[in-house]
Amino acid sequence: MNGASTLFKKEVLRFWKVSFQTVAAPVLTACMYLLVFGHTLEDHVKVYDSVSYTRFLIPGLVMMSVLQNAFANSSSSLIQSKITGNLVFLLLTPLSPLAWFVAYVGAAIVRGVAVGLGVLLVTAWFAPPGLDNLLWVLVFTVLGAGLMGTLGLIAGLWAEKFDQLAAFQNFIIMPMTFLSGVFYSVHSLPAFWLGVSHLNPFFYMIDGFRRGFFGVSDVSPWLSFGVVASSFVVTAGLALSLLQRGYKIRS
Amino acid sequence: MPSAAPSVAIAFENVKKTYRGGQVKALDGVSFDIGCGEFFGLLGPNGAGKTTLISVLAGLARATEGRVRVMGHDVVDDYAAARKALGVVPQELVFDPFFSVRESLRIQSGYFGVKHNDDWIDELLANLGLADKANANMRQLSGGMKRRVLVAQALVHRPPVIVLDEPTAGVDVELRQTLWQFIARLNKEGHTVLLTTHYLEEAEALCQRIGMLKAGRIVALDSTSQLLAGTAHTMLRFKTDAALPAEVAARARLTGRIVQVTAHDAAEVETTLATLRAAGVPVEDLEIGRADLEDVFLNIMQGDAA
């Protein structure tokens, strides 16, 4: 796995060299959400008795940023390399499919954590969210970012142009993150949409993550852990099999 | 690495590559070996399958049938060892815009598990005239400089086998000379070189053996000297505006006013000149010379060998 560590470092350097765009910008976006939604809904929405709406919102925004940026890192790196043709430098190397997977997903987790930490530090200044169980916070951060980094890897392999990747991001990832209970508790939804939300793996990532902060959640954190971990295993298996076949990267 | 040093650097065994469910045959049963330490030229017109063959060799494409080995390692079953033995300079001028020249080389070296490789990187930079560009971002380099970096990237893990896919396409004379001096030195030091090029004079000057591909098949495979000896020995070159007599025209190649006619011996040269005189064809700037690789190439490609 000697080569994998180089690819991992290169992938981290790639986003770090443009960190205004890849880290600072998403932190600012999340702060805007907090300012606008927190300010306008603070007195109108109460999700948990002991938690103000602004405090409730913070872990959701942090996790949404982690997930979106983890996805963006692996997917945009791969599609850029495919379109500019410099993926050939990697294709010529002895790196195994597992090495590709570990490096791309590892770097996606680092980017997700970097942005999530940035959002947490800035938003906590407005309203400290508190901490109930650090372990749940860490488990859901790493697993969620890993799952999204893996999905980004799959999307990056599949997409042949930026347009297709944007469609994947805007029509699948974005609605699923928005409809996962970032801005509300799914229990406030009508029965049908509550059922739909329970089919959305993003809901479990956000709910489990939030549990680590408040000690309360919509479903058991163990259920969330089971759903997120099994989703990760399934997508990781798919990504590894696509890499093994050289799907859309080796003719 | 196998215990005994292999004598064959690259072995192609009945390599076939088809696309669109077999409708397009890019490679149609290619078999030949390249010995260790050889400087081998792979020639062929556009679309003959040269790049496909190199892609199969480098693992960028998978053969539909057949096997390829690099230093005894199968490029599919033992891909890691095969790729470590191979340094490929791709045809397309590609680069990673996020990194400097030195960073690109360190990263490429790291992919092959070769760390702390700065001495060799410095030597590559010096030999390829890149020393003063080491810290420049790849985006700031001219096309020729980017091409040099591609060569350095291919050599950064010290592979015993070097593959150059049209490395001098569209580059200036200075780079060509720098590049060939360096590659010739590496070849003398024992590296095997596989070169594809459109510049036949380069192949003639550098390659000990040449294979010619046409429509996915090898149609000629011999030492460069044998290929040259096996064709018409003599070439008549002259300029004229007049129409050529039919029996001369059949053996002639026309480039504007310049006519080149092949002849097997002196008697045939005399007959040709007599025929031109008899037909009243005015001949200017007459030269008689040896046939070159271009003539061999055209003879083979225009023939029915495939």
Report on this structure.
The complex is a heterodimer of chains A (251) and B (306). With 251 residues, chain A is mostly helical. Chain A has one domain. Helices cover 76% and strands 0% of the residues of chain A. Chain A is built from ten helices and no strands. Chain A is globular and about 60 Å long. The mean pLDDT of chain A is 90. Chain B has 306 residues and is α/β, with parallel strands linked by helices. Chain B has two domains: 221 residues, Rossmann fold (3-Layer(aba) Sandwich); 59 residues, no CATH class. Helix content of chain B is 34%, strand content 28%. Chain B contains eleven helices and 14 strands. Chain B has a six-stranded mixed β-sheet with strand order 6-7-8-3-9-10, sandwiched between helices. In chain B, strands 2-1-4-5 form a four-stranded antiparallel β-sheet. Chain B has a four-stranded antiparallel β-sheet with strand order 12-13-11-14. In chain B, a hairpin with a 2-residue loop joins β12 and β13. The longest helix of chain B is centred in the middle third of the chain and has 16 residues. Chain B is globular, with a radius of gyration of 22 Å. Chain B starts with 7 loop residues before the first strand and ends with a helix. The model of chain B has no long low-confidence stretch (mean pLDDT 87). The chains are: A mainly alpha (251), B alpha/beta (306). The interface between A and B is medium-sized, with 27 and 30 residues.
